Amino acid sequence: MGANPGKPQGLLASADQHNMPLMAILDPIEALRRVPFFAVLPAEELDALARHCGVRRLAKDEMLFAEGDPCDGLLVVQAGAIKVFKMADTGREQILAIDRAGSTVSELPVFDGGTYPASAAALEDSTLLFLPKRDVLDLCTRNSEVALAIIKTLASRFRYMTSLVEELSLKEVSHRLARFLRDRALAFGVRTRRGIEFPLEETNQEIGAEIGTVRDLVSRNLRRFVDRGIIKLERRKVIVLDMAELESQIAGTKRAGTSERP
User: Fold this and answer.
1) pLDDT (tens digit, 9 = 90+) per residue, 71-83?
2) Most exposed among 32, 165, 215, 256, judged by the fewest C-beta atoms under 10 Å?
3) What is this structure's pTM?
4) Which residues does 88 contact at the CB level (< 8 Å), separation at least 6?
């Protein structure tokens, strides 16, 4: 078994090893409770599960696993953010998911016995809980509610991936970028007199990796949105001036300029 996550000195030792500052993290039980298929468990079972968890800390940009690596157990984000991605031979990256506190990371190989189908790395300093595969599978065998919740989670992942394939293969870059901005505005935006404001920490290259295009096309389409009065860009901040027009870009009823594909 891994280190007991209930002992703070274990986290301190791991932080010193990476020369990383300590971060605010979820209590292990709370992190597990946020996982849909563990949320059905009573408090005493969650507590027992937490005691079986090891802890792994990653510095920003550190790899969690590479595509093709064997999977030994379930990973749950306790703090920070993990990107799951595919990398082309050309070096171009496509982000498949960004998992934050309370999310599992690429759980599929825990259940099908295969290797990791994609790679994962820390977008920021992160802490993860590790639960051995044997413990997860034993829990599924004993508890049908957990097994059904896992099926629902995997089905949700499949629906998301189907939607992602549609976005990447059938939608213009302007549509994908508009959706990215709309989703950020809904999740993190604050309504002000100027519009809906939200922080944007990613570079254009990182945005491109998430929506399946290249940096230059992200820059070009952002400028078109600005020129049309849909958004305003400030340092590390976006202000949505016209949400209805942004929505129309997603629907494809209007375009910010000439059609372009990556």
Assistant:
1) 999 999 999 999 9
2) 165
3) 0.69
4) 94
